[in-house]
Amino acid sequence: MLSWYLAGALLALLALRSLWLRLLLSRAKHPSLGGHARIARLVARLVRCYEYDETRFFNADDAPADVAAARRAGFAQLAQLYAQRFPKGTALTREVAHTVSDLQFTLRYRVPFQFGRVVRQYLPGGTFLESSSGVTVADVDGNRLYDVSGSYGVNLFGYDFYERGAEKVRALGPVLGAYHPLVADNVRRLREISGLDEVSFHMSGTEAVMQAVRLARYHTRRRYLVRFCGAYHGWWGDVQPGVGNPLPPDATYTLKDLDAASLRVLRTRRDIACVLVNPVQAMHPNASAPADSGLIDSGRNARFDRAAYAGWLEELRAVCSERRIVLIFDEVFVGFRLARGGAQEYFGVRADLVTYGKSLGGGLPVGVVCGRRDLMKRYDEQHPVDVCLARGTFNAHPYVMGAMHEFLTALESEPIRTLYRDLDAVWERRAADVNARLQAAELPVQVANLSSIWTFNYLGASRYNWMFQYYLRAQGLSLSWIGTARLIFSLNYSDADFAAVADRVVAAAEAMRRDGWWWQNPALTNKAIRRRILRELLQAWWTTSSIGSTSSPRSKASGARQ
């Protein structure tokens, strides 16, 4: 009988421990939808599309008639300018848009979906560029634009020098499987930069992250990875658990960034293989990467506190070392932008595995994993069929290795070393100068920056902040498809180049105000805007639901297949 009591007590203790661990995990999740993937996916399925007509487009905030008229006139003038300045680019974009699925996606998600139809009709923009030089690019219509897209992280020192890499490997050409001799030098330089023992090459940043996580799971014999709320690590399902992933991952914990509750989870669980850190999150912890398609109000609030984030990483490093959890820095986006030694050098914290990409290949397909020797091994010497398989037909492609060699050689040159001296001070001064000019002109917009990575914060409640990107393009700036959410400057911007961009930013903001988009109403708060949109969403859901399920695009597609 005693044994039964002991067994019952043991089961009760195990149940209590499981409940306690579950409670700790729940407390470590961010309260937003970003911290609850399953709920986010459910909400996404419930949201129905609705679009404003050309009347509602100009007074979605109930602006008075004169303000709506000013907006309409400004919009018409802008549309005419785009038609005159970008005719070839617009025609080419429209020609291929219905056959290039990537382009369909980016065109649809440049602005909040309620405004999308009108914008796509009158401000289609161009997607095609013909040349690059220094800090500028030229489109197919011959417009020379200052590049603040940064090619999504690729453009660090300019585009020009990468072309020399092809010359270095031209004699070999696209021969795969064997290595070009440049590989040895690239590996030596990557080991020196990362401070880690071994290197593996991959086809993309997403693939490099996949392999880093696989290696961590293989060597720890644990299942779960931890990522932090809002962080982006590529489109692989295990690191994108919420909206955008058709299937919910079952081995991922999404925890709060910069929070002691997350550290408690790491200290108490025995099933965590690795922790993923994307250093750009220091700019907007626990918030997804910003995009103008989500600018429904002025709630964006990016800021960077280097000391606070470095302190957090030090705590995270200590806990991971204590619990033998693999700490992975995903530097695919920020790699080498913050310092020559990357985020490890910049924040003074060492990772166990680091992933790189983008700038290493100058836009060619590239991903790299650098890691400790014991973690990089893909086989068990005592068990010969126990392996961690990772293969890639195009890994270490000669052209990629040539471009990488040009980049790594440039990284060690004196002119580039000069760019890194006082790097933070240079970009802090530039951001402060722009903010001072915007403030002096009483314009309701400011920039926040993580070194040369910038985003715009909006100071007054508005439904139309997303329009700013079109005024910036009209002023001769080449932005990425996410608009004003992220400006990425190459480090070779001279003071004169930057002054030209600053002039254009201020001019665009003044035009935004002149055309009435930043009209202010004391009753128009961010909270009021969100409530209005919630009512519209509920009305759209009720309307489409009452019509019947056949109105759903998925239902129509299913019917067609039947």
The proportion of residues forming helix, as a percent range, comes to 40-55%
**What does the radius of gyration come to?**
26 Å
Overall body shape: globular
Strand content range: 5-15%
Give the helix/strand class: alpha/beta
What can you tell me about this protein's structure?
The structure is a single chain. The N and C termini lie far apart (63 Å). The strands form 4 sheets. Strands 4-10-9-8-7-5-6 form a 7-stranded mixed beta sheet, with helices on both faces. It has a 4-stranded mixed beta sheet with strand order 1-2-3-15. It has 562 residues and is an alpha/beta fold. The C terminus is likely disordered. The protein has 20 helices and 16 strands. α8 crosses α14 and α17 crosses α18.
